[in-house]
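Sequence in, structure out.
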Amino acid sequence: MVIRKGRARTGRRGSLRSKKRIMKFNLSADTVIDYKDLALVQKFVTERGKILSRRITGLTAKQQRAMLHAIQRDRYLGLVPVGSSKRRHA
């Protein structure tokens, strides 16, 4: 059985219907993603410094790419954590 991308199966014999994408962070089309806007960038990074996926944030591919570049710039400047704060045992 093949389930097509973007579809959600409902019930045992239920019909297939489209799953509506939920945008957690409402970014309008005119919102500019900039590395200097730390409040916006930190919404898309976990406490350990991991970037949240598109599936969770609801961003488009273009917005996710712009966010990735902004986070990478902030990491380089030291404004956002780079990795986990967990201590590794040797």
